[in-house]
């Protein structure tokens, strides 16, 4: 499947990485929805920083570029049942691209 053929298919991607440490729960999260809504959150308590949250809508060209990168990476062809269980520094990845769905959550 090419990114171009998945244009009208359902598309969703979420990436999260975080941990609980001496500065509390620190994490980075990125989500892109089929509508083009892009959500970003970054929580770092280092030096008393505050959480940063942003939400924007991106155009079809940005969504298509995400799709292209995902398709070319081949990650949707990998058996997610064999992914390692995350350790204390947890990372999560979920991708829905047409009828393909991979997730480690």
Summed up:
The chain has 1 helix and 6 strands. The protein is mainly β and 105 residues long.
What does this molecule look like?
The chain is mainly beta and about 100 residues long. It has a single domain (about 10-105), classed as Mago nashi protein (2-Layer Sandwich). Helix content is about 15%, strand content about 45%. Strands 4-3-2-1-5-6 form a six-stranded antiparallel beta sheet, with no helix packed on it. The two termini are about 25 Å apart. Mean pLDDT is about 80; it is low at about 1-10.
What are the key terms here?
disordered N terminus, 1 helix, 105 residues, Mago nashi protein, 6-stranded antiparallel beta sheet, mainly beta
Largest sheet: 6 strands, antiparallel
Q: What's the gyration radius in Å?
A: 15 Å
Percent of residues in β-strands: 35-45%
Q: Terminal Cα separation, in Å? A: 24 Å
Number of domains: 1
What does the average pLDDT come to? 80
Secondary structure tally, helices = 1
CATH topology: Mago nashi protein
By DSSP, the count of extended strands is 6
User: What is the CATH top level name?
Assistant: Alpha Beta
CATH architecture: 2-Layer Sandwich
Helix content: 10-25%
Order of strands in the sheet with most strands: 4-3-2-1-5-6
Shape: flat
Spans of 5+ residues with little confidence (pLDDT < 50)?
Answer: 1-8
Structural class: mainly beta
CATH homology superfamily: Mago nashi
Helix and strand element order: EEEEHEE
